[in-house]
Specification:
Layout: H1 3-7, H2 44-47, H3 55-77, H4 79-100, H5 102-127, H6 138-143, H7 146-152, H8 163-182, H9 185-206, H10 212-239, H11 243-251, H12 274-288, H13 294-310, H14 313-329, H15 336-355, H16 358-367, H17 376-393, H18 422-450, H19 459-472, H20 483-531
Helix pairs in contact: 3-4, 4-5, 5-10, 5-11, 7-9, 8-9, 8-18, 9-20, 10-12, 10-13, 10-20, 12-13, 12-14, 12-19, 13-15, 14-19, 15-16, 17-18, 18-20, 19-20
Length: 532
């Protein structure tokens, strides 16, 4: 590393706010910091400020628009073919992006996870409802290319900071073997996907530390746009549900959502049910709160309203918990980052509840906090804890993969599809020993990821920590470590770990820079002394 390279390096933090056109000398800086991104790993499209600013990016956008037109044409003419071809096409795109556009691969993953349930409803209203839809495999197969990252970096699992990943993976392998015997290979394999794929994505993101600034920028934009889309669609869905949403409620017998009439059911936006939508929106809102662009403010308004309309109290409490953690991390000199978003959301909630028809639904749910002794769902969850605890204590080996969740529908043995407790799900599926190993690995990763280091104004990282911990706090109510909820938790956790590794490398390079400059100064002084 030459001294001239260091002299040309801008100062830390010199980058305009997202949404503002950068200066010419800053366009190649993809992070807030003065960093050296290995350009060999980033494509031309990823090196531009936006996709439209590069020729390769424009080609990708054009291909995406053509793909969207083909999707609509197939939906009109051949919905059955679309139902079969959706998963292979999504998987092919994921493999291509994984190979040539690593940051866009992560963004594509996020979009597929939140849009696939919507795509299923949109397709099956024409092709016909399927109880076990192959379309729902798309998010898992889109994330599976990360398996190559695991194989490539497997030796690093023995390192101190990454060894907890190995513990979690070992416990899942144990539960899979038990599941093959107790629930059957089909249910165990699907259950393994539900547990393994989110963890795999977290490890993949942690191993992308060398391009973390680029990953950071892409995820910031992706989260803003997804929150805006899900929020606006969720509010519209509540006021005027679309035919495919009503079709889903009737076909899947989702009576828990309420009466399928305008303003009489719980919002689930682009997801399958209110609970996973509430978790994604809750965590994403905490992260979007760290941004100050106009689009981020609009996204927060729409997202917060949709979150309230889910009436998922656990997610509301988790958001409050995550907000307090974020406020604890933010230094006092930056208190405006706490006061302004909180005041804006308070005004929004007040306006919505006081002057719109949505207020009755939200207020009624808020009032239920004062009558928990008469709450049916709370009593039902307490009865579940009492019933499952005895079963868990009498099954030290666990039921294995495929005994809970969506995979339970394929189980050939003991199964419980509705497990309203993540803690019990861990012990029920992984057993006493497997659950203990998994929890040790989980705690180790969380402690490492959220350990406080010099942030230098990186509020995005602080919000990721808060959102990950808020998602984890939901564990007593339902399992937030698997499926789409797990993608949120493990994804944010992986980004936090990637930042740790990137910062360590940055500090090493700074030390090298100081040494090089000192040597050059000493050499120059020696030359001057010799000349004299």
């Amino acid at each position: 590393m030459t001294a001239s390279r260091w002299r040309d390096r801008p100062e830390w933090g010199q980058q305009p706010q997202w949404g503002q056109p950068p200066q010419q000398e800053q366009q190649e800086q993809l992070g807030r910091w003065a960093d050296d991104i290995p350009q060999s790993r980033l494509s031309e499209a990823e090196q531009g400020y936006t996709l439209w600013s590069t020729r390769q990016g424009r080609r990708l956008l054009t291909s995406a628009m053509l793909g969207a037109l083909m999707f609509v044409a197939a939906w009109v003419k051949s919905p059955h073919i679309l139902a079969v071809g959706f998963v292979p096409m999504a998987t092919f795109i994921a493999i291509y992006l994984y190979r040539y556009h690593p940051t866009l691969f992560v963004s594509f993953n996020w979009w597929v996870w939140i849009l696939t349930p919507f795509a299923r409803r949109f397709i099956e209203i024409k092709s016909g409802y399927m109880v076990t839809s192959p379309i729902l495999l798309a998010p898992y197969l889109v994330t599976l290319p990360c398996l190559f990252t695991l194989l490539k970096h497997a030796p690093k699992l023995m390192r101190r900071h990454l060894f907890p990943f190995a513990l979690c993976l070992a416990s899942l392998c144990y539960a899979y073997i038990v599941g093959i015997v107790s629930t059957g290979i089909a249910a165990a394999s699907y259950g393994l996907l539900v547990w393994f794929v989110p963890l795999l994505l977290g490890f993949h993101l942690a191993m992308q530390w060398d391009i973390y600034p680029a990953m950071r920028n892409v995820m910031r934009k992706t989260l803003v746009f997804t929150v805006l889309l899900m929020g606006v669609y969720g509010v519209y869905q509540f006021l005027r549900p679309m035919p495919w949403d009503l079709f889903w409620i009737y076909a899947a017998h989702m009576t828990v959502l309420g009466n399928p009439q305008p303003m009489q059911f719980r919002v689930f936006s682009t997801l399958n049910s209110p609970a996973p939508f509430a978790v994604i929106m809750m965590a994403s809102l905490i992260v979007v709160m760290s941004q100050r662009s106009k689009l981020a403010w609009l996204a927060m308004g729409a997202g917060a309203t949709a979150l309230l309309l889910t009436t998922v109290r656990t997610a509301w409490l988790a958001w409050a918990f995550g907000f307090l953690i974020f406020a604890w991390y933010v230094p006092f000199r930056s208190i405006s980052r706490i006061v302004f978003p909180l005041a804006s959301l308070a005004v929004l909630v007040g306006v919505v509840t006081a002057f719109t028809p949505l207020g009755d639904v939200i207020l009624k749910r808020f009032q239920s906090f004062g009558t928990l002794h008469d709450d049916f769902s709370l009593h039902e969850r307490a009865n579940l804890y009492a019933a499952i605890t005895d079963r868990v204590l009498n099954t030290p080996m666990g039921e294995g993969m495929g005994g809970t969740g969506p995979a339970a529908t394929m189980s050939q043995g003991a199964a419980m599809q509705n497990m309203d407790s993540g803690l019990l799900d861990i012990v029920f599926s992984l057993g006493w020993f497997g659950g203990l190993v998994y929890v040790i690995g989980l705690v180790g990763l969380v402690v490492f990821a959220v350990s406080v280091r010099e942030s230098r104004g990186d509020y995005f990282d602080l919000s990721l920590r808060a959102a990950a911990l808020a998602t984890l706090s939901i564990l007593p109510s339902f399992n937030s470590l698997v499926g789409v909820d797990g993608i949120v938790f493990w994804g944010f956790l992986g980004l936090c770990i990637a930042r740790h590794f990137w910062l360590e490398n940055y500090e090493e390079e700074e030390e090298n820079r100081v040494r090089i400059l000192a040597l050059e100064a000493a050499a120059a002084a020696a030359q001057q002394a010799g000349a004299a």
